[in-house]
């Protein structure tokens, strides 16, 4: 065996070029696998760290824990660690503009709480004693109270008391307004030492009545340090945030149920979304939770990110994609690296025959091939692993650079030893499967066949028949080139396959990227604005004053402010086409009502819109948009196609009876349209069912049509949820004449504004600064959509996907190229006797070069004839799949990618064969012919 190993090592040293090329292939395959597992590990680690910052470093929160019960958590073997917070109480905030959040909720914790809780500092530092406090940023942005670091504040801290139920109110309950007061208040003075982000949902409920202020607790610090017993403050109530052990996470429901004292199976069933509970079980579960020892909050996202087994749905898709990519890498690498071993066997087939003739067994010959693979792996795998880690580090930095500003978290580089071990195992498997087939082949060859070397080429003479056109065009060199390709079909098959794989992948991914960017452009092409503003408030907004604010900001090229009111119209005057469409959509109903949206525009925008639409005397009534585009089913093509149609028969001077509902106080909150959100009873074509219309008290208004148009003002170009009517402020108020009061204001109005800004980012920044400190807009919540930024973010996302996709192509291509170099260069060397013989009988250097060029052309053409059509076919199928989601995509082959692919393939093959040919030209003809080892 030692002799076989020595021979194997000697052969590797003698065939340095092939050895180096094979090692490069192994390095690339290992690097790709290592990079893959490192990126998956980095993404998982980043998501865990993001969730810890967002909601806190805990798995389950237990509320209402008495100080004397704290030891039960500290000594629980299923709990890895805990930190605690103590509720000090609520204090009224003077000057708070948020009527639903008038308090400060003072919470105390220690170093562990500050470290593991979701207290993310923006400015200053954390509290270090009981006289210091940290306040949240949204106290200023939401509550409009401006307190700075270094300020002294005095708080009257007490308990919330509900006089109607004569009970204390839980800390996360919403504000009860007139029904509640503060009792048992204690005055406390603090120094503000820091400002933090708003704590996550696990620490501050979104509906909570107080802004979370955090101070330091000497008591909790003393307990954690062991200098104070829990029993000394037995009646104090705490909130305990616990981290489970990895073993406990696998049975988290059973562990949690045991701590809070409820039925384990019932609790587990209730927390399993895939299992349906019966009504009886649901009632029993609710009763059990009402009587549970503690209230709980489960940090489900952190648990799903950290729980390796069983894999949660959050990461199942990621791991599935990673597994598929790993499988593609392994199969591609096995196919390519296997060819290196096949070439090695072909080169050494005589040697194996001689070894077999002097007594080497099949097992020893097999072992020799596997030893060669192991030696190559010992060099290639460590270098490949380190290269993959380095590539991952670079890629993480590229990802963070590309995603800056739109990704909610920064991707952190993280290596995992188990993940790297998995990559090494996959690399070993790749090399093993690459070498196994070649080892079997070497062992099967008999000594006589090996020494004669006649088994490599088995082909019938009929298959070597050359088309006459090749001889006429390219002469004897073309005939020899063609016959050599046919004769060595097995050797060149791997080269062709490698080119096909790379070509298809490049064409498909290039098409996907161009289609993705095209789709992004199409999705924003219909938008005729780049800043959209939706407003939610509890009072009327003066749209004229707000329009002056928008127009006064530098860079506003055009703008519009609108207040939208929903009305229903019973049996409107449909055109024949639109009426038939509505009856088909709504089951042939004869009584089809429609939703009409009357939008009141600011005067300047309305006058401009009326002028653009060519409507005179527009102030006398409303402008009706009388055209719409709908998806209509085409029976011939069996597809839905977009069709534009005229909607109604109304003309200038006609009157439309618009109805609206007025609800009593008990139901108004459930039926009102708030903050621009349409009622769920309306579908996307504006149809309103009779049950909705008749709910509540229905009233009507007569709206006169001032003009009909197919034009729409900015912001409403793609609006299709209702028929559009536009009016100015004066015209709309005239509808409420004769003693009527506008019953739709405040609760039934949605405010929106649209701006065409020269620089959307600068305009948004200025707008936010103008409104943030303005007391006039303190009770208005603004939701700003920056379409330019959204489009950039979407393009950045696809660019990011492109980095991964093209990176994968590059590495797979490099593996393929090493295989092509190995195949072609070794093939040229093995044929050096043949070339020397041809040159000895008179073939000139020019003829020899032409013959090699023709072989390059034949190989390239064969690969491209398969690869290019296959790439076009797959890209077309991708287009068909995408069209099922959006029928607007027209297939156009990626011509640039196809041309680039053709040019690169031809140049690559020619360059490799040219280099090999140059080396053969310098060989001595006689010495080459005499060399029996070729």
TrEMBL record:
It comes from the Bacteria. Residues 19-216 form the MacB-like periplasmic core domain. This is Peptide ABC transporter permease. One of its GO terms (cellular component) is plasma membrane. One of its GO terms (molecular function) is transmembrane transporter activity. Belongs to the ABC-4 integral membrane protein family. Its main location: membrane. It is a multi-pass membrane protein.
């Amino acid at each position: 065996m030692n002799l076989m190993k020595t021979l194997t090592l000697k052969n590797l040293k003698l065939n340095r070029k092939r050895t180096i090329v094979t090692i490069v292939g192994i390095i690339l395959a290992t690097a790709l696998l290592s990079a893959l597992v490192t990126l998956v590990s980095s993404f998982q680690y980043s998501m865990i760290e993001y969730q810890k910052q967002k909601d806190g470093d805990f798995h389950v929160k237990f509320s209402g824990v008495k100080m004397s019960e704290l030891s039960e958590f500290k000594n629980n073997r299923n709990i890895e660690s805990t930190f605690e917070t103590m509720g000090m109480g609520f204090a009224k905030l003077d000057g708070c503009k948020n009527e639903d959040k008038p308090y400060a909720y003072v919470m105390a914790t220690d170093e562990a709480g500050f470290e593991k809780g979701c207290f993310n500092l923006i400015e200053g530092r954390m509290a270090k004693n009981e006289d210091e406090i940290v306040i949240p940023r949204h106290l200023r942005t939401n509550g409009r109270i401006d307190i700075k670091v270094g300020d002294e504040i005095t708080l009257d801290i007490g308990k919330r008391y509900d006089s109607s139920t004569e009970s204390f109110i839980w800390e996360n309950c919403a504000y009860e307004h007139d029904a509640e007061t503060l009792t048992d208040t204690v005055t406390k003075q603090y120094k503000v030492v820091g400002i933090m982000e708003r704590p996550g949902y696990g620490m501050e409920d979104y509906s909570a009545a107080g802004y979370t202020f955090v101070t330091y607790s000497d008591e909790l610090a003393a307990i954690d340090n062991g200098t104070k017993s829990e029993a000394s403050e037995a009646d104090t109530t705490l909130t305990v945030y616990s981290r489970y052990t990895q073993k406990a996470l696998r049975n988290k429901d059973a562990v949690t149920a045991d701590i809070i004292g409820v039925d384990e199976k019932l609790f587990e069933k209730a927390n399993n979304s895939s299992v349906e509970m019966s009504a009886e079980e649901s009632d029993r579960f609710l009763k059990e939770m009402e009587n549970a020892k503690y209230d709980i909050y489960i940090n489900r996202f952190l648990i799903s990110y950290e729980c390796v087994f069983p894999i949660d749905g959050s990461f199942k898709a990621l791991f599935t994609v990673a597994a598929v990519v790993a499988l593609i890498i392994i199969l591609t690498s096995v196919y390519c690296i296997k060819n290196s071993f096949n070439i090695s066997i072909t080169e050494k087939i005589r040697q194996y025959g001689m070894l077999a003739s002097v007594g080497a067994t099949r097992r020893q010959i097999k072992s020799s091939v596997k030893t060669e693979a192991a030696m190559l792996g010992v060099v290639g795998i460590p270098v490949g692993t380190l290269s993959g880690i380095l590539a991952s580090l670079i890629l993480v930095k590229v990802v963070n650079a590309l995603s800056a500003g739109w990704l909610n978290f920064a991707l952190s580089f993280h290596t995992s030893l188990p993940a790297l071990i998995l990559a090494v195992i996959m690399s070993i498997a790749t090399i093993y499967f690459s070498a196994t087939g070649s080892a079997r082949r070497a062992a099967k060859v008999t000594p006589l066949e090996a020494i004669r070397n006649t088994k490599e080429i088995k082909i019938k003479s009929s298959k070597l028949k050359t088309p006459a056109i090749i001889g006429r065009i390219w002469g004897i060199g073309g005939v020899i080139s063609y016959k050599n390709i046919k004769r060595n079909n097995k050797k060149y098959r791997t080269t062709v396959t490698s080119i096909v794989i790379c070509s298809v992948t490049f064409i498909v991914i290039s098409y996907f990227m161009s289609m993705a960017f095209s789709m992004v452009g199409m999705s924003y092409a219909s938008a005729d604005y780049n800043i959209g503003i939706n407003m939610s408030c509890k009072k009327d907004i003066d749209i004229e004053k707000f329009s002056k604010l928008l127009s006064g900001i530098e860079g506003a090229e055009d703008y519009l402010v609108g207040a939208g009111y929903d009305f229903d119209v019973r049996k409107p005057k449909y055109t024949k086409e639109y009426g038939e469409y509505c009856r088909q959509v709504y089951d042939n109903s004869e009584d089809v009502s429609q939703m009409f949206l009357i939008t009141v525009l600011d005067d300047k925008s309305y006058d401009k819109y009326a002028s653009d639409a060519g409507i005179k005397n527009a102030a006398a009534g409303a402008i009706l948009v009388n055209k719409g585009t709908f998806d209509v089913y085409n029976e011939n093509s069996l597809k839905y196609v977009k069709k534009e149609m005229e909607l109604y028969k109304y003309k200038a001077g006609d009157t439309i009876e618009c109805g609206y509902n007025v609800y009593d106080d008990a139901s108004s909150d459930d039926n009102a349209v708030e903050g621009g959100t349409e009622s769920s009873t309306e579908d996307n074509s504006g149809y309103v069912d009779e049950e909705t219309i008749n709910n509540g008290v229905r009233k009507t208004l007569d709206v006169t049509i001032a003009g009909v148009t197919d034009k729409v003002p900015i912001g409403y170009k793609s609006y299709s949820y209702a028929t559009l009517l536009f009016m100015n402020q004066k015209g709309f108020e005239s509808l409420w004449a004769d003693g009527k009061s506008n019953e739709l204001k405040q609760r039934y109005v949605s405010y929106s504004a649209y701006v065409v800004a020269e620089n959307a980012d600068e305009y948004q920044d200025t707008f936010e600064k103008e409104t943030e400190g303005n007391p006039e807009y303190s009770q208005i919540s603004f939701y700003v959509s920056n379409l330019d930024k959204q489009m950039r973010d979407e393009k950045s996302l696809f660019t990011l996907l492109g980095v991964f996709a093209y990176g994968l192509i590059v590495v797979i291509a490099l593996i393929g190229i090493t295989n092509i170099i190995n195949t072609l260069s070794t093939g040229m060397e093995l044929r050096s006797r043949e070339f020397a013989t041809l040159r000895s009988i008179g073939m000139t250097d020019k003829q020899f070069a032409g013959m090699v060029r023709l072989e390059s052309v034949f190989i390239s053409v064969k690969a491209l004839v398969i690869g290019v059509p296959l790439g076009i076919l797959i890209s077309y199928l991708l287009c068909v799949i995408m069209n099922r989601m959006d029928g607007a995509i027209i297939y156009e082959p990626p011509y640039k990618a196809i041309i680039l692919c053709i040019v690169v393939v031809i140049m690559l093959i020619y360059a490799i064969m040219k280099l090999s040919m140059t080396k053969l030209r310098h060989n001595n003809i006689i010495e080459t012919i005499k060399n029996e080892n070729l």
